Structures
1.
Amino acid sequence: MATSQLPPFPSMAVLLFGFGFVFLMPVFVAGVTRHYTFHIMYRNVTRLCHTRTILSVNGQFPGPRLVAREGDRVIVKVVNKVSNNVSIHWHGVRQLTSGWADGPAYITQCPIQTGQSYTYNFTITGQRGTLLWHAHISWLRSTIYGPIIILPKRNQSYPFQKPHKEIPIIFGEWFNVDPEAVIQQALQTGGGPNVSDAYTINGLPGPLYNCSSKDTYKLKVKPGKSYLLRLINAALNDELFFSIANHTVTVVEADAVYVKPFDTDQLLIAPGQTTNVLLRTKPYLPNATFFMEARAYFSGIGSFDNTTTAAILQYNNHSSSSSKLPVLRPTLPPINATGFVANFTSKFRSLNSVKYPANVPIFIDRKFFFTAGLGSNPCPKNTTCQGPNGTKFSASINNVSFVMPSTAILQAHFFGQNNGVYTTDFPVNPPLPFNYTGTPPNNTNVSNGTKTVVLGFNTTVELVMQDTSILGAESHPLHLHGFNFFIVGQGFGNYDPNNDPKNFNLVDPVERNTAGVPAGGWIAIRFLADNPGVWFMHCHLDLHTSWGLRMAWIVLDGPQPNQKLPPPPSDLPKC
Ligand code: C2O
């Protein structure tokens, strides 16, 4: 009988196993560094027969595509060649321990002044899909915006069929006049601002506007192929419905996170949101022409741009016949289709696969209940105001209309030199509870301040955002910098803290950076505060941001070296 004997160390088996192990391990592919230079410069653009000098990046409108793979480092030198102060935000990029590169003016940096430059330096970690970059000061993002395309790592593929082509579709809003004058006048008079003159698809309004048919985006496709449309809403003040005539698309990703695929004919996309959809073209359709259209979803009161932008989906002409088929137009939901919006947003679910798990915080350290909505500020003495009942329009979270400081909060925080730049007493709950979606209170005045919330490192946070009907119920696309959050619940009416949490989805809720607080309803989100820095949170309708619907979270350093915010780069702009 052979006795088993331990072979001399190291055993052949161990060696073989060791080799096999090395061989079978996926080869680690380090990201590369991608360099860009963004010159902020003037450019003349004509739309709707109006020529305007706009601010652009490198003379391009919409701006250049920023392309990177997951894991890459991105270095963008921004050079300001215009008279406005500027800053650029990489919307949705998590900026793990790179908060100095986030970009919102007076939150993480002072703006870049005329003739100055600043180099943004960040690594894209754990994200893949589509995001956007845009100016983050006043209303400059009306023309300073462009796509961020994050490809999977080199050795990885999509969790869906590889598309034949990938096409960014970026929605915008065109003003015949200078948008800076529009918001300045609105803030001065206290009234609602003039609305935009057109929506655009890849910078072009399309044939449904006067003097615009030559400014139409055309997407030429081949039959029987699949196209990945990278949809981005960069519009200033409007959530948009989008549809392609006679085509169904499959939603596969939202805010650079994969979702469980679902089919739809009509979409809603809020400013700041991005979503990838697969478009499968039909088998054989010579000369066929379909419209893709977008127009506003508007739930509030007052005026808005109710026009429609259109682009053309054109099948390649393979036959010699020149017979023109009629152009087919899509059906979009009604302007105020809040029911459609609730139903559509509830279809988004995290992929939640082994490879892409949904790490929903289950045990919550801190709970917050914030109201979000419009209100008013008293009219200064001896002036007349054009807001509600002679007041000035304002907007607030928990009745605080956030006042922009004159120096960056992150700098003041990092160097421990607050000196009254901000306070840390942002209310955890509404100061005066009321029937948020019922009859509004008599006094609609808001308070003003630069208030923040301080969170310890790795705090798990649950935040319920409740819309108020003070000046009309209205949807607010809420954007959080520095984090993705999970949308664990949403509903209409007032949030019920005793019963609504029973229905929270803690298994596969969608993970996003921007989500609509439903008109006359609430949304519950959860996130892990694992990123030290100062993180802006605001309504992504720029008008509401300007009116004060914004606040900031301060997340403290963690104990480990890689959990601390490093000192700022030496070229950080000064105020
Ligand atoms: Cu896309 Cu603070 O913004």
Note: Residues 12-24 form the longest helix (13 residues).
2.
Amino acid sequence: MIFAKKTLGQNFLQDKNIAQKIVSLSNPQKTDFFIEIGPGQGALTQFLLEKTDKLLTIEIDSRLVPELQNKFQTFQNFELQNIDFLEFDFTTLPQRVRIIGNLPYNITSQIIFKCFENRSKVSDLTIMVQREVADRLSASYGSKTYGILSVILSVYGNVKKLFNVPPAVFFPKPKVDSAVVSITFAENFELEFQQLFLKVVKSAFGQRRKMLSNSLSEFTKGFSSEILGNFANLRPEQLRPEDFVEIAKRILKSGKV
Ligand code: SAM
């Protein structure tokens, strides 16, 4: 028996029905290439191996490796890398992959950003996250939880909350509620625009209480009214995702970057 490490977000799912439901809602096809983040003790892994031809599991905790290898070594389609997912190199992949996992909650945003930045190699994610984060990911403008990820994912993808999960189905029990979400990335990769767009959104929300004329001054450089127009006196949560796209386009056109 391995003691769970809080620092690695280890709350192991005990309920087989929920594990099966997560895998089934990800709609796995035989030809898909899945990456499972943090297989832990293999709650989702078994069901995935039965449904798909290729599964790469990435687990940071070397204490879990012998148990995982032991359980799944007979499956030809099982592969395990004992590394930090945040260090994983997507450029080595031969095809676009699908991501699944009951995530370590302390690095959820970093995982989503990494997948987003590599979305030429990642088509979608089916992930368990903290319920509050699930709400934030799909928040619309005007709401308190609307933030960087809600804007970015709404422009470059599609987020769907699938179902809520109570603490009681894990061991040890987390202190928070959980939810399973699906994120699908759109297939557009205009990198120059994306980089600027990300900087603009991050700057605006990085100074959430300031008006855009202040928080985006580094991009508008004396042309605030031409570039920001009616948005100048607003705060970031008052803008729709498409408004940020419009601002980034105007900045690009003005040649100020
Ligand atoms: N999938 C298992 C389950 O459903 O029971 C475990 C889920 S547990 C919430 C998160 C898992 O992610 C743990 O096994 C933990 O060791 C692993 N993990 C934490 N940080 C990681 C990282 N940076 N890269 C890969 N795995 C990580």
Note: The chain has a mean pLDDT of 94.
